[in-house]
Every structure is written in C-alpha cells, then in structure tokens.
C-alpha cells in the first residue's frame, strides 16, 4: 500500500506543478496581449 500512497503524493505534486506553470504561462500571455493592445491602440 505504500507504493500507491507514494504514487498519489507524486501525482498531487505534479498537479500542483502543472497549475503553477499554467498560471505563469497565463500571466505571461495576458501581459503580452495587454502590451500588444496598448501599443497597437
């Protein structure tokens, strides 16, 4: 049973890492869009 709990913890860590990377990418995308909008307008 220790293997399954370890796998579950690893999966939770991967999900958290994915959310962090996604949020960072979203912030960069929003900043880029805002900059293009301000420069274009």
From TrEMBL:
Entry superkingdom: Bacteria
Keyword Membrane found: yes
Residue ranges of the TM segments: 15-38
Keywords for this protein: Membrane, Transmembrane, Transmembrane helix
NCBIfam families associated with the record: cyt_ox_assem_30 (NF038351)
Protein name: Cytochrome oxidase small assembly protein
């Amino acid at each position: 049973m220790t293997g399954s709990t370890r796998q579950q913890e690893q999966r939770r860590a991967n999900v958290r890492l994915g959310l962090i990377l996604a949020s960072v990418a979203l912030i960069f995308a929003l900043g880029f869009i805002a900059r293009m909008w301000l420069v274009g307008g």
